[in-house]
């Protein structure tokens, strides 16, 4: 089974990388960009049933993939 | 002082740290591999050195913080043992929950590698007793992610409880945005835990301990630890 964990910075946390990318896009003339926040995507393959997979992914995100001081995460089982 | 230096894959400042500890304490530190599950008998001080553990993949220090040896370090710290984390070591201590907050990308995005001035905020702790309160010292920094951040309550507590021990400043000791090299909250360069036995700091005192290094301002930190342990013994 394939799954995806998306880790993003919480609202209000300064994201210097996102800001730099935002500036670069503006200087490249890409119009209409209001703001950019950078995050991370983990594509994960798992065995077992969907309920177990969701629990494992949540544990993975809580234990290592995200630092919940500054980051939020979202878990999706893609089937 | 019987010290132990943690060694993680990718770390590259462990020998600088060992050299400084040997020089100031007169004893050879133990080098402890990340896969160990215990610390050497009679360890007085555990040091998480700088370097780039696991290549800084994921988040700086995140993988090292989950290494087997860190359970032993947590137990050592909760028994009151002294723990020092420098640079990547500071990041590891934050990621492992031994210190609050996190080190984020430098606000101006650049990797910073030069000497900085630090104001020693108080001298009545094991990590600062080699200095006077308000003293300005010069030590090098070398980091891309040293921008200390925590929620407002944590920052308020750190300040209120006098847990900021080192702060970026000018040569004459002024603190402000122009001297805050990485954008850290409150110009924080080093903090201790609630109990005062775990210090994390971004600058490298171990690289200013001998005349040949051009400055010996970092020596006071290690000398203070030795003095503290001698008095406790």
From TrEMBL, chain A:
A single Gene Ontology CC term: cytoplasm
Major localisation: cytoplasm
Organism, scientific name: Nitrobacter winogradskyi (strain ATCC 25391 / DSM 10237 / CIP 104748 / NCIMB 11846 / Nb-255)
Top EC class of this enzyme: ligase
Reactions mediated catalytically: N(2)-formyl-N(1)-(5-phospho-beta-D-ribosyl)glycinamide + L-glutamine + ATP + H2O = 2-formamido-N(1)-(5-O-phospho-beta-D-ribosyl)acetamidine + L-glutamate + ADP + phosphate + H(+)
Protein name listed in UniProt: Phosphoribosylformylglycinamidine synthase subunit PurS
E.C. code: 6.3.5.3
Protein family according to the UniProt entry: Belongs to the PurS family.
Highest taxon listed in the record's lineage: Bacteria
One Pfam family named in its UniProt record: PurS
Subunit structure: Part of the FGAM synthase complex composed of 1 PurL, 1 PurQ and 2 PurS subunits.
Location relative to the cell: Cytoplasm
Pathway, per record: Purine metabolism; IMP biosynthesis via de novo pathway; 5-amino-1-(5-phospho-D-ribosyl)imidazole from N(2)-formyl-N(1)-(5-phospho-D-ribosyl)glycinamide: step 1/2
């Amino acid at each position: 089974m394939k799954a995806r964990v998306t880790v993003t910075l919480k609202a209000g946390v300064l994201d210097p990388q996102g800001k730099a990318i935002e500036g670069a896009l503006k200087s490249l003339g890409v119009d209409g960009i209001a703001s950019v926040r950078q995050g991370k995507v983990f594509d994960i393959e798992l065995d077992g049933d969907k309920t177990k997979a969701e629990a494992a992914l949540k544990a993975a995100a809580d234990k290592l993939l995200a630092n919940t001081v500054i980051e939020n995460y979202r878990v999706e089982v893609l089937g | 002082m019987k010290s132990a230096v943690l060694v993680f894959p990718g770390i590259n400042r462990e020998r600088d740290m060992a050299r400084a500890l040997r020089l100031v304490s007169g004893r050879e530190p133990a080098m402890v591999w990340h896969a160990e599950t215990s610390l050497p008998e009679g360890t007085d001080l555990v040091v998480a050195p700088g370097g780039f553990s696991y290549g800084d993949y994921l988040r700086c220090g995140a993988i090292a913080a989950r290494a087997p040896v860190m359970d032993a370090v947590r137990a050592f710290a909760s028994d009151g043992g002294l723990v020092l984390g420098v640079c990547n070591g500071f990041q590891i201590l934050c990621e492992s929950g031994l210190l609050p907050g996190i080190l984020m990308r430098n606000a101006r995005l650049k990797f910073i590698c030069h000497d900085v001035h630090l104001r020693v905020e108080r001298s009545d702790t094991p990590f600062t007793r080699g200095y006077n309160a308000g003293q300005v010292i010069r030590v090098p920094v070398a980091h891309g992610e040293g921008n200390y951040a925590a929620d407002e309550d944590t920052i308020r507590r750190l300040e209120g409880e006098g847990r900021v021990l080192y702060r970026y400043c000018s040569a004459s000791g002024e603190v402000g945005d122009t001297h805050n090299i990485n954008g850290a909250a409150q110009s924080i360069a080093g903090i201790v835990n609630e109990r005062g036995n775990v210090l994390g700091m971004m600058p490298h005192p171990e690289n200013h301990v001998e005349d040949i290094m051009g400055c010996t301002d970092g020596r006071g930190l290690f000398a203070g630890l030795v003095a503290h342990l001698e008095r406790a013994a």
